[in-house]
Amino acid sequence: MAFPPAFLDELNARNPIEDVVGQYVALTRRGSNLFGLCPFHGEKTPSFSVAPEKGIFYCFGCHKGGGVVNFIMEIENLTYGDAVRFLAKRAGLEVPDDGAYQSQYKKKERLWALCRAAAQFYHAQLKTPAGEEARAYLQKRGVSGQTVTRFGLGYSPNRWTALLDVMTAKGYTKEELLEAGLLSQNRDKGTLYDRFRNRLMFPIIDVRGNVIGFGGRVMDDSTPKYLNSPETIIFNKRRNLFAMNVVKKSKREFIILTEGYMDAIALHQYGFDCAVASLGTSLTQEHADMLSKYTDELVLTYDGDEAGQNATQRAIPMLERTGLRVRILRMRGAKDPDEFLKKYGADRFRLLLESCENQAEYRLRSLQMRFDLSQDEQKVEFAKQAAALIAGFGTAVEREVYGTRAAEAAGLSPDVLRMEIDRARKRLLRQEKREETRREMDPAAAVQPFQRELRYDNVRSAVAEEGLLRMLFREPALLAQTEGLTAEDFSVPLFGRVYAALRERWQNDLAITPAALADSLSPAEMAHLTAVLQKQEPPLSETALADYLRILREERAKARVSDASDLLAMQRDLKKKKGYGGS
Questions:
Q1: What is the rounded CA–CA span in Å between residue 139 and residue 145?
Q2: Which of 184, 213, 345, 420 has the maximum number of C-beta atoms within 10 A of its C-beta?
Q3: d(CA 344, CA 162)
Q4: Shortest CA distance to 42 belongs to which of 61, 58, 60?
């Protein structure tokens, strides 16, 4: 997805990062930088910074960073190319006809159009005589005609090539139908046939309104009960949620996360227009990040069986990492929201929402249910585990409130359990202190990238490389004094690539800014480069520059000697092996 460098420079110049970020985050100036609450994770004290002069943003809490394109990629959940188009449209720029990128984007546009046409076909089939069984099923489930229209529900005919025949007649190719996940192929014969047959169809629509895939549900006891579209270039189950396109417009202050499409649809029909469902997969960190962009509070309504409880326990820490307040809704007398609403109505469900447990209540109650507290041994074990759980709660008030509740449940004195919580908390704090001390005593740990995949092998050289890059970004004219230095002289491959890109841009009189490298670095690499540039800047002196260059060359020379020694050792081993008749 290579765009002309001059176009990207113009794009960055026409989209000042402080203006773009300011449309999403309330920023306050502090010195030369701007600060605000991070939009990518929950926080009460601003740790999100924007450096207008450098054209970068960085969060010291979640470590996301980069230029204006990276910001739009994160905040709007877009690919690099789509973020460029987004900003080009904002600035009134025409995107140049870049072959590779345009080909990929046009393919996506074609598949979006194909999926929309398929959704229209399925929706129309629901109204035909062939769709009678699906209509009867929806009526039995209490789904109104208005809801059917709102969610674009449909029916896939019980024929092998119904969709294939109609879509090819419209000009779409078999290859496109395969790429969109609408066809399957017989492994032995190679014949193509409709992936979805005789199923109630649920179009999956992304937050920008594009139909990207489908879920199909059987109307009897056949299996699989649900069949979803496979992963395609437009459909990623880990990054999308059913009904998110509707929920993003909701005025409610929370989002309800359900397990199934029918649960989400039932909630919308009963007036709760803030319900979403995952797409046949467990909740992922990408889902949690997406939800946190649209709300501060999430209500989990997973089933009350063991699988549902396990899913809830896995989801809570994932959601809380994004700063979301998590509440858990417990249903009695029904297995899921759909059944509850049909039995008891919207008013009773509203009362349930008002009495939701927070994550602390839920985890404590779930722990309690695992023990028979009439038995002394189990009472002791419950007290130990409850103390360990409560010790991790963030505030003294939470520890006091839930410690008292746990003591009451176990029939113990609150003072006794409070002592146990205090001991557990001290152990926890000692452990955290040991970790902190270990990091402080290990100078390498202090400079290592947050991203594990970018860790430094040679810390001495890496620190010098960081300083050198900060100097070059600040004063590109210093590149004239790095003649002879190559990307191979850097111990960190990322820094070598950045240096090579800077030299190329300098030689071609192009802008030397971090944002200009967004097309050649991954989000993780861009975030780390941003973190490096946020560190205290070195003095602009020839001595400092010479020191950095000297260290790079010294460490490179050592690495060459080491590599040569390793090669000689391998040769000796090989000769020795051959001498003994080895193979």
A1: 9
A2: 213
A3: 40
A4: 61
**Tokens (6 digits) for 424:** 């557990």
* Contact (CB, 8 A) for 146 and 199: no
Q: Give φ, ψ of 96 to 5 degrees.
A: -65, 155
Q: What is the CA radius of gyration of the chain?
A: 29
C-beta separation of 182 from 232 below 8 A: no
Task: Quote the CA–CA distance of 518 and 531 in Å, as a whole number.
Answer: 14
Q: How far apart are CA 161 and CA 21, in angstroms?
A: 48
Cα distances (angstroms) measured from residue 30 to each of 33, 36, 42: 6, 10, 21
Token duo for residue 402: 């839930």
- What span, in angstroms and rounded, lies between the C-alpha atoms of 364 and 165? 56
Cβ contacts of 156 within 8 Å, gap of 6 or more: 122, 125, 162, 163, 194, 196, 197, 198, 199, 201, 216
Q: Which two tokens stand for residue 8?
A: 């990207």
Burial of 339 (0-12, 13-18, 19+ CB in 10 A): middle
Q: Nearest 5 degrees, angle CA 519-CA 524-CA 528?
A: 100
> Are the beta carbons of 528 and 501 closer than 8 angstroms?
no
CB 152 within 8 A of CB 242: no
What global pTM score does this model have?
Answer: 0.65
Share of the chain above pLDDT 90, in %: 51
Tokens of 2: 């290579």
- Given a contact cutoff of 8 angstroms between Cβ atoms, the answer to whether 514 and 66 are in contact is yes
Q: Does 96 have pLDDT greater than 90?
A: no
State how far the Cα of 131 lies from the Cα of 60, in Å rounded to an integer: 55
Residues making up the chain, counted from first to last: 583
Which residue's structure tokens are 């996360």?
257
Count Cβ neighbours within 10 Å for each residue of 180-190 and write b for 16 or more, e otherwise: bbbbeeeeeee
Mean pLDDT, the chain, as a whole number? 87
What would the pLDDT profile of 512-551 be if each residue is shown by its tens digit? 889 889 888 888 899 999 989 988 665 677 888 899 999 9
